[in-house]
Write a structure and sequence with these properties.
single chain; four-stranded antiparallel β-sheet; 1 helix; 8 strands; elongated
């Protein structure tokens, strides 16, 4: 039977590694003088309720301190739908309708100008029963600050 002989270098290397582990483990403790300071302020979010159950958060933006959002409504009795762009004022809590598109027209995208007017790209799709094809019409609209349509231009 042959006995394994451990070389002196290996013994020294093992002793060094063991001592490094021991010194490393003892150096991890913190002193009792290390006290973390409590910040003088804390962020507390504020939540608001907007009384509109038809809000679409997919198309919403904060512009100039106001929240602009789209709202969809469907009237089952008449089987018509409508889409509006509304402005919620964070300052006073009021909501104003700034744009409305006609029945079967939908907002694709919109932006608010520096004067408060709204420019919106809307679309309307029709299905042709004979060809089984959809035709889509794109309209560029501008709404004034009072919500009235200023102009409408077919950009299809």
């Amino acid at each position: 039977m042959q006995r394994k002989i451990i070389r002196p270098r290996l013994k020294i290397a093992a002793a060094l590694m063991l001592s490094a582990l021991l010194f490393g483990a003892t150096g991890c403790g913190g002193s009792k003088d290390d006290v973390q300071e409590t910040p003088e302020w804390a962020y507390v979010p504020e939540y608001i309720n907007i009384d509109n159950n038809d809000i679409s958060w997919y198309q919403a933006a904060v512009i100039g301190g106001d929240l602009y959002y789209e709202a969809y409504k469907y009237d089952e009795e008449t089987q018509t739908d409508s889409e509006t762009l509304n402005k919620y004022s964070v300052a006073d809590g009021s909501t104003v309708q700034v744009a409305e598109v006609e029945d079967d027209n939908y907002m694709n995208s919109w932006t608010v100008g520096p004067d408060g007017s709204v420019i919106a790209l809307t679309y309307h799709s029709d299905f042709d029963e004979t060809t089984h094809q959809y035709t889509t019409e794109y309209i560029l609209n501008k709404f004034g600050t009072d919500g009235e349509k200023v102009f409408s231009h077919d950009v299809t």
